[in-house]
Specification:
It is a single chain. The chain folds into 2 domains: about 10-170, Ribonuclease H-like superfamily/Ribonuclease H (Nucleotidyltransferase, domain 5); about 170-245, no CATH class. Helices cover about 50% and strands about 10% of the residues. The chain is elongated and about 55 Å long. The protein has 12 helices and 5 strands. The protein is α/β, with parallel strands linked by helices and about 270 residues long.
């Protein structure tokens, strides 16, 4: 049984089941090309029974980029119901600027793993990633190109991550109403570009991304700097409150196991 033509035999996950794996984890991140907002990683731990007899309500699972928003929102609670556990993690735009995007992706994945393992009696036997190598991870890791279209576990993780990130960007929308985050989710649209040109970047824009850097150099100073600064501080506080649950509470686990696998990675 299969989910889509792209996933056909689920050969990657079946190869691990044939080697005796009892719990297969998959992870994927979303928000890679956005100009604003966090990068979010999802992770799921999937028991063998899901691969052996795919539940009918999971047959539409696919790479989140190939699904509509409605399909993703419908599938997310189904995925949560069928997996053994799931986790989420994020790296903020500030962390992307400070550490580089590659490191931020690994940080989000580490945080998703930390969230996942708190819900499991033991660690997964294997962690599958979508072309993201992880060194010194606390579990075996196998990286595959286009894993979100070839591995059920990675596709499910991508859906959870995408739904969660979309919800975050909708929460940011009233905080920074000029940028249309509820619709563009931080990606580069014409309206987003126009807002950047007029108002400049906000606190959740990725300062090192070229469109944001270009807008920073073009924006005019405000007519009332004191009022503008006060409004910006209030908005930034609301932004920090929105991200607190992901980037601070869920995420900033400093366990020795999870910290080790961030060492020596490429940015």
């Amino acid at each position: 049984m299969r989910t889509s033509a792209r996933m056909q035999s689920l050969a990657i996950e079946w190869s691990w089941l044939d080697r005796g794996a009892k719990l297969i984890a998959g992870t994927d991140e979303v928000g890679r090309g956005a100009w604003a907002g966090p990068v979010v990683a999802g992770m799921v731990a999937v028991p063998p029974r899901v691969f052996q007899s795919l539940p009918p309500d999971l047959r539409e699972v696919d790479d989140s980029k190939l699904l509509s928003a409605k399909q993703r929102v419908t599938l997310a609670p189904r995925i949560m119901a069928h997996v053994t556990a799931w986790g989420l993690g994020a790296a903020t735009s500030r962390e992307i600027a400070d550490s580089g995007f590659g490191m931020a992706v690994r940080l989000a994945i580490r945080r998703a793993y930390d969230d996942l393992v708190t819900k499991l009696p033991s660690a997964p036997d294997i962690l599958l990633t979508d072309a993201v190598p992880l060194r010194n991870a606390p579990v075996p890791v196998e990286s595959h190109a286009k894993a979100d279209q070839r591995c059920l576990s990675v596709a499910m993780a991508s859906i959870l991550a995408k739904v969660h990130r979309d919800q975050l960007m909708c929460q940011f929308d009233p905080v920074y109403p000029h940028y249309d985050f509820a619709n563009n989710k931080g990606y580069g649209t014409r309206r987003h570009q126009q807002a950047l040109t007029v108002f400049g970047p906000c606190a959740i824009h990725r300062a090192t991304f070229r469109p944001v850097m270009r807008a920073t150099s073009q924006v005019l100073p405000p007519e009332n700097p004191t009022e503008a600064f006060s409004n910006e501080c209030a908005a930034d506080q609301k932004s920090d409150d929105i991200l607190h649950g992901v980037a601070s509470t869920v995420a900033c686990s400093n366990s020795s196991n999870s910290g080790a696998w961030m060492q020596g990675v490429d940015r």
